[in-house]
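tool=predict chain=A
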Amino acid sequence: MRTRMLALVLAFSTITIAQNREMKREKLSSEEKVAKQLEKMTSDLSLTNEQQEKLKPILEAQMKNREKKMEEVKEARAKEEKKSKEERAKRREEMKANQDSFKEDMSKILTPEQFENWEKIQESRKEKAKEHLKEKRARH
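tool=predict ok
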């Protein structure tokens, strides 16, 4: 009896936690995402108003590109299309080129100290993403 009760409590708490995570995730527009990203970068890197104005169009372009690619991925998943190794390699190369271009733009806008801090933040985010992916794969 205790085992069943414990199992029920555990099941309900798991469901509740999952629902709370879904509720917390906000649906932001592209403009809101860019504004939030710019605000975070401003606080993390102490950006000047001039740097913010230079960075905003770059972030907007990056967001549009990211959303376009995400839409392509969603459409491919809906059609249950599998990409060939060549297509996946091409996609990775495109992503790398976009990252390199963004990094170059950042190096032109930020001071050397800010750029160094930005790179550290990016590396930290990359490590967290890797850990999250490992956890996600372990669960499935």
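The chain has one domain: 27-139. The chain has a mean pLDDT of 85.
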